[in-house]
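Spend some time on the protein that follows and explain the fold to me:
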Amino acid sequence: MLPKDPSKIEAYRQKLRDKKLGTIPYNKGQKGVSEETHKKMVLARNDGRVTGIYTRTAETRIKNSIGNKDKKRTEEQRKHISEGHIGMIYTEERNLRVSIGVKNYVKTEEHCKHIRESKIGIPQTEESNRKRSESESGAKHHNWQGGKSFEPYGLEFNDELREQIRTRDNHQCQECFKFQRDLRTKKGKEYLLMIHHIDYNKRNNNSDNLITLCRICHAKTNYRRKDWEEYFKVRLWIKEVARDQSCSHRSESCSDHE
């Protein structure tokens, strides 16, 4: 039992470490439990996660988070952890909870910065890039929409219609308000403004379902589609009302001059 006096805890721990020096662990030299025992442990742990028997409290999770913060593991420890996850069996319910958690999880700027810095200088092999691409492509991606991006556009969605929408929107992105003349790719090349389908139906090419966006803003619309759909509908409605009011004012001024 740990001493009640905090100043004596470290000395107590050092005493325990010194006491164990020279002793041989009972499992030294063993490569681990048998495959059958390992499966039983995995199943028991998974069942515990589902039933709540092994559910960690919020206090325990916070303690683990603080304890692991800025903790650097050696290559041997990383390898041991990686090998420990091989062959683990996850239930469908667990996978669903993880999927929902990833969709609703919003990273802070500090978290994003930490992820970026942790990956600096780490070379990515062709095999790791291929595996990551395969694990996140198609129906395996958390934002999979049933293959909507492969649906064909309607015949009326041609260059002439796209240019009409750009002209209607004053050749300006309707989200960040950058003009066509100011748009450049990362390599410095000019590109045309994109025409976005507000309801994501590529065959609905009515003018009230089309809006002009730059590449960056258009890429953002691939996430939280319902929110973007409602947002752009309101934006177009406000713009249409403003246009009607402007036309009515012009007509009234013309009648006054007459």
Summary: The first strand starts at residue 194 and ends at 197. The first helix runs from residue 9 to 20.
